[in-house]
Amino acid sequence: MIPTTSMTYLNTRHQLPQIGMNNQLGRFSKTAVNQPEMHGNGHQQAQSHMGITQSQLEIVDYPSRKAYGARNMTDFTAERGQQGLADVQQATSRHAQDTWDVIERGPRKGNYQIQKFHQQIYADKVVRPRFSIGRVPDPEIHGQQAQVVGDIDVGDVTEYPEPAREPDIQFDRGNLQTYLDNQGFINHWISQGQYDIQA
């Protein structure tokens, strides 16, 4: 009879590692479109800055009044000054002539000076008034009609939109967390005669 020998068996038991995961998806928490901004000068109303000037009438009648002798002080003093200079020149000339007459005719017979004075008195008595007839100028009439002056302000209601360059979006990023839920194991042991299926 052949003796029976027990065989040695290598038993193995193992468990794979387990990984746990926490997953949070990304999402949009805010999505909005920015409204365009309006720019401009506002509502500037139209305005009228116009008016009417008064009509004017100017009558220059001084030349007519001057022809009748109604002179102003400027013209009167100018005429009197010229007349005074003329009288002085005339008197100077007359006195010089009288002096030469006395020098030349004084020594002669007869009373020359008395005769001359008589002639002068007679000439003054027979002086006739002199009148000058001239055209009386018409008055000058200048008129200016009323005028519409000023400008019109047409106002300004110009506006232009400025769109936003970027939308108003807020995105919450998701995340993924991993962790080791079970480390796992490998166990080995030896049994005799058969596998240790109970291990």
Structure notes:
With 199 residues, the chain is of the alpha+beta class. It contains 3 helices and 12 strands. It has helices at residues 62-67, 73-105, 112-125, and strands at residues 8-15, 18-24, 27-32, 37-40, 47-52, 56-60, 140-144, 148-153, 159-162, 168-172, 175-182, 185-192. Strands 1-12 form a two-stranded antiparallel sheet. It is rod-shaped. The two termini are 34 Å apart. The model has no long low-confidence stretch (mean pLDDT 80).
Shape: rod-shaped
Helix content: 25-40%
Structural class: alpha+beta
Give the termini distance in whole angstroms: 34 Å
The biggest sheet, with number of strands, parallel, antiparallel or mixed sense and barrel status, is: 2 strands, antiparallel
Please give the radius of gyration in angstroms: 69 Å
Query: So how many helices?
Result: 3
How much of the sequence lies in strands comes to 35-45%
Main β-sheet, spatial strand arrangement: 1-12
Mean pLDDT: 80
